[in-house]
Specification:
This protein is mostly helical. About 70% of the residues lie in helices and about 0% in strands.
């Protein structure tokens, strides 16, 4: 059976995903820094305020391209494998494909996220110092602090975002009776991302607290560890409102990010497919 023309191959997924990841992380990094500092227990000002809002950018860039590439490769291939399912089951397909994509992407994303957030919160001054300090204090597993928390946060996020995104694209294409353009897909991604971001902010707060926790001298247990315990502790000690710390910059950041990320991905994918670049992989 011939390959569907709108289904990218492995190399096209990697190239389009990598370009999208670098575009969004570079463009919107300052908002991510502000969000992280708002969620830190030390508080916004103590964590750096508006100073050095590009702290940790190098770590983010190192992880953005491979992380996004892995996500879209897994997402597209899983969708393709499940494409024979009836249309009314497609939202479940998108949820499963997006979840699989996030689990794969987090293998790359979490180590860079740990280093990035510790730089953003001013726990370390340089990338090399952050990497060395994390390794000496916690070993290799220290770079995967918060992996489960990140996955638990990302799966609900993608299970909300991608079914909405895919439904909006399909609805708009049917309404216009033509294929959707990349900038229109970007608008769909922006709306879907904003909704998902607002609803999953408490999980993002938990992820930030866990990733910023480090072992003390003598190997004392980190301040925050489990998902449920961190969630209940923040609510108990700081009130339910603290679970929505950073909701405004997070929603703005991901709404704009959804536009840039998904719009860039769709545009690069469309260009590669149309020009038949990397089409023999």
């Amino acid at each position: 059976m011939a390959r569907e023309t709108n289904v990218p191959n492995m190399t096209q997924c990697l190239v389009a995903g990598g370009a999208a990841g670098m575009a969004v992380d570079t463009a919107l990094y300052p908002l991510d820094t502000i969000k992280t500092r708002l969620q830190a227990k030390a508080g916004f000002i103590a964590s750096g305020g508006f100073r050095g809002i590009y702290s940790g950018l190098s770590s983010a860039i190192l992880g953005s391209a491979p992380g996004a590439s892995l996500f879209f490769l897994t997402y597209e291939k899983t969708k393709s494998l499940m494409s024979s399912l009836p249309e009314h089951q497609q939202p479940l397909v998108h949820m499963f494909a997006a979840s699989a994509g996030e689990i794969a992407a987090c293998l790359v994303r979490v180590p860079t996220e740990v280093v990035k957030q510790r730089l953003q919160a001013k726990q370390h001054k340089t990338l090399a110092e952050a990497v060395r300090g994390t390794f000496l204090a916690e070993g290799l597993l220290g770079f995967y602090r918060g992996y489960l928390t990140q996955v638990v946060r990302e799966i609900p996020f993608t299970c909300i975002q991608f079914p909405i995104y895919e439904y909006m694209k399909l609805w708009y294409a049917r309404r216009k009776q033509r294929a959707i353009q990349s900038w229109e897909a970007a608008l769909c991604g922006s709306v879907a991302g904003g909704i998902a971001a607002a609803l999953t902010t408490p999980l993002d707060v938990v992820k930030t607290r866990v990733m910023l926790s480090t072992k003390g001298a003598g190997g004392q247990k980190p301040e925050y560890t489990g998902i449920v315990s961190t969630l209940s502790r923040v609510a108990r000690e700081e009130g339910a409102r603290a679970l929505f710390s950073g909701i405004v910059p997070r929603t703005i950041w991901i709404s704009i990010g959804g536009f840039v990320f998904l719009g860039s991905y769709e545009k690069v994918k469309e260009t590669l497919l149309r020009a038949k670049l990397f089409s023999h992989s």
